[in-house]
Amino acid sequence: MRVCTRRRSRTLRLWLLIVFLSLHLLVVSLVLSIYHTSCELHSYPDIQTSISFSVQNTSASTSTMAAAGSDTQEVEMDSTADNLAKLEALYSHPLYNLPTPPLPDGDWLLKLRTQKKEEEHSTQQWLSANEDGYDPIRWNASAETHPPWLRFHLGISRWQMYQHKDPSLSALTQQMASHRIVSAVQKSGGTQLKLVMSFPNYGQALFKPMKQERHEETNVNLYYFSDFERHNAEIAAFHLDRILGFRRMPPVVGRLVNVIREIKDITTDHKLVTTFFTSPVGNACFYGKCSYYCSTEHAICGRPLKIEGSMAAMLPDLSLAQRRSWRSPWRRSYSRSKLAQWETDSNYCDSIKKTPPYDRGTRLVDLIDMSILDFLMSNMDRHHYETFEKFGNDTFLIHLDNGRAFGRHSKDEPSILSPLVQCCRVRRSTLLRLHLLSLQSYRMSDVMRASLSLDPLAAVAPLLTEQHLSALDRRLETVIQTIQDCLQQHQHHSDVIYDDISDYPGA
């Protein structure tokens, strides 16, 4: 027993001695290493000098970059402020604030009325202005409490989608950009994936997700009918339509959407649910069901969960406000080899002018307005347009579906202007606004840049590249020159200019 105890004690002392010697050797090696490094630095003073200069240069460079960055930021802020001032001045111009007489009840698309028998109906209801039926939703009597969606619908008139200074427009776009989404289902029809998003206060918006980067130009070998729909084009088209003073497009705003939480988890669309998957890099993706670009090769993917998209306010339900679809007389053939009649017949417009509804009223100049808008944003995909059936032929054209605009900034497509070139007819109000936007004080690219900067997605990246903004100025000059050519071809200006603002004193 004593022998075992002595052996264990001797073994323990031996291990302690080994540990002590190891620690001692480690401390000695560290001291020698520090001493050696110190000697090397003293032996090579140039190293110390270079280190010193490197620190000083880095410090100086950082200071210079900070100063330059500060200057650049100040210049950008000044430029943004100037452009916003231009935009405000543009919208304050008399051309955008022309006096309009009160509209009769028949010139409003929808209206609210109070039922006479309060015991049967104690609240107001939303119904068609021709009183052909009620919407199941009931609203409070006070107009201030109506949600922005209803105020937008009630503001649609015979001549415009919304008023120039509509107070509900800001609230509507803000809700589409930020309010909770309670439902997301795929919209039927069409060649590409679109979703109908619903909100808690009965509002709905059409969501077009991001399919390509903003700086990407459309492939030169791609036909216009095979192009992608771009979310930023929908947003930019709304701003351009407003800047031109048309106001014929439903409000559109950008939004970041969570692919899982705001689409997959809340959708009741069983076909849509089956198309969700996770990409090899962990991004949440889906592709939906449609006739062309709905496959894993064309999937919509978050980064990793959120995806950009455009939210366009939905128009009133067709049960309340029927719309009529019109085939555009300048519709393209949608063939890779066949040309349309207007592309081969230089006198094509002569027959159109004799054909209803283009033989009277404002339908022809409204169509030419739309062609000017399309040329400025290079949209070749205008095969149809819609009007509200209630207003018959005397109403504005709804500028819907602009996702294939702004595809190429490096090329202008003159054929889009064929209605203007062949008919040589234009509204006086349109011409005056085009001239206004060509002036340095209201330059189109500047006011467009300012207007787009107010969209929520502008915080991620500019919605249009500088090349696209420059293209707007270039194309504007082409439109104005085309009208000048028309005026020179006709003896009387009244043959070209449709005077829709005879009381306006401008030239």
From TrEMBL:
GO terms for molecular function: ATP binding; metal ion binding; phosphotransferase activity, alcohol group as acceptor. It comes from Onychostoma macrolepis. InterPro entries: FAM20, FAM20_C. The keyword Nucleotide-binding applies. The active site is at residue 381. It holds the Pfam family Fam20C. ATP binds at residues 192, 208, 229, 312-315, 386, 401. Belongs to the FAM20 family. Keywords: ATP-binding, Disulfide bond, Glycoprotein, Golgi apparatus, Manganese, Membrane, Metal-binding, Nucleotide-binding, Transmembrane, Transmembrane helix. The chain crosses the membrane at residues 12-35. This is FAM20 C-terminal domain-containing protein. GO terms for cellular component: Golgi apparatus. Mn(2+) binds at residues 229, 401. It comes from the Eukaryota. It is found in: Golgi apparatus. Its main location: Golgi. Residues 276-494 form the FAM20 C-terminal domain. GO terms for biological process: enamel mineralization. Its cofactor is Mn(2+).
